[in-house]
């Protein structure tokens, strides 16, 4: 959960079997909704990650809905060598109102890094005719140019930059992007964080302070508590119920399988309104809050 430059964002794990997560972000211009369930394939020294899910952006001014299907991700050198990520394949964004779509191809990284980060593709109209060619690198910038039916640049036109990554903040020791810094900073956090906000994770706080030993201990402790909660839930035959999202009954198809869709229930906005109306909210130091994402009290688990 965070507030970033006018955007209110809430995310939650909505299912444990199989693991599924949801997110909702909103400002005056758009709404962003995602239901995500990853499928993986272990290949020895690498791991393929398939993004089973649905991502949609609703433009408030026009009511248009954009549907996004991202490419898969490959985690290389899991055991030997330096671990690094690649995302080879197609990303498709479709306008469900007009039928227009953008298809971008993320090039696989070749020998000695050739082709790494490179992206090429086209924007098509509803009749599948290319109208714009797009090119660039997903870690730096993207540009577009009008094209003909063959996908070649139109005479008299030139490439125009449409997006550029923000500069990395000065004195960055975490190798975060500008967006990741804003997303994880207490400076951009709303008043009275949820106790489940990942900013409050003790392993993360230790890592931020450079205490790797404590970070490892705290991470292990959290994982053990997660397993204990899972075992207690199964032993007592209790269903996990998400707090901020609800099941819709809708099933969506992806290139990697079907999945059920959750939707934001609006309760987080109600919570924020109550907090902002409370005169005591400004007196709370969020950094002193305890991380508590748990469904059960620790005494309940120990006594089971």
Automatic annotation (TrEMBL):
Gene3D superfamilies: 2.40.160.120, 3.30.70.3490
InterPro entries documented for this protein: OSBP_sf, Oxysterol-bd, Oxysterol-bd_CS
UniProt cross-references to PROSITE patterns, sorted A to Z: OSBP
Lineage: superkingdom: Eukaryota
SUPFAM superfamilies: Oxysterol-binding protein-like (SSF144000)
GO molecular function, one term: sterol binding
GO CC field: cytosol; membrane
Family: Belongs to the OSBP family.
Protein name as annotated: Oxysterol-binding protein
Natural source organism: Ceratopteris richardii (Triangle waterfern)
Lineage: Eukaryota, Viridiplantae, Streptophyta, Embryophyta, Tracheophyta
């Amino acid at each position: 959960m965070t507030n970033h430059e006018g955007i209110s964002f809430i995310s939650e794990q909505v299912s444990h079997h199989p693991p599924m997560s949801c997110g909702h972000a909103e400002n005056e211009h758009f709404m962003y909704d995602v239901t995500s369930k990853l499928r993986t394939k272990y290949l020895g020294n690498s791991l393929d990650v398939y993004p089973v899910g649905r991502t949609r952006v609703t433009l408030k001014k026009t009511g248009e809905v954009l549907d996004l299907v991202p490419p898969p991700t490959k985690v290389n050198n899991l055991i030997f060598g330096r671990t690094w990520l690649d995302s080879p394949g197609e990303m498709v964004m479709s306008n469900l109102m007009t039928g227009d779509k953008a298809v971008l191809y993320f090039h696989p990284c070749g020998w000695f890094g050739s082709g790494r980060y490179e992206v090429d593709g086209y924007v098509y109209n509803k009749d599948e005719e290319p109208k714009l060619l797009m090119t660039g690198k997903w870690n730096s910038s993207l540009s577009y140019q009008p094209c003909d039916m063959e996908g070649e640049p139109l005479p008299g036109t030139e490439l125009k930059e449409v997006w550029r990554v923000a500069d990395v903040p000065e004195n960055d020791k975490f190798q975060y992007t500008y967006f990741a810094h804003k997303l994880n900073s207490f400076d951009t956090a709303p008043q009275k964080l949820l106790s489940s906000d990942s900013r409050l994770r003790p392993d993360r706080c230790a890592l931020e302070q450079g205490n790797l030993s404590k970070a490892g201990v705290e991470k292990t402790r959290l994982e053990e508590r997660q397993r204990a909660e899972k075992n207690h839930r199964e032993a007592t035959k209790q269903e996990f119920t998400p707090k901020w999202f609800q099941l819709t009954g809708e099933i969506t198809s992806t290139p990697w399988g079907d999945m059920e869709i959750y939707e934001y229930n609006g309760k987080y906005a109600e919570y924020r309104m109550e907090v902002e109306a409370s005169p005591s909210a400004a007196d709370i130091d969020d950094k002193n809050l305890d991380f508590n994402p748990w469904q059960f009290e620790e005494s309940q688990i120990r006594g089971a």
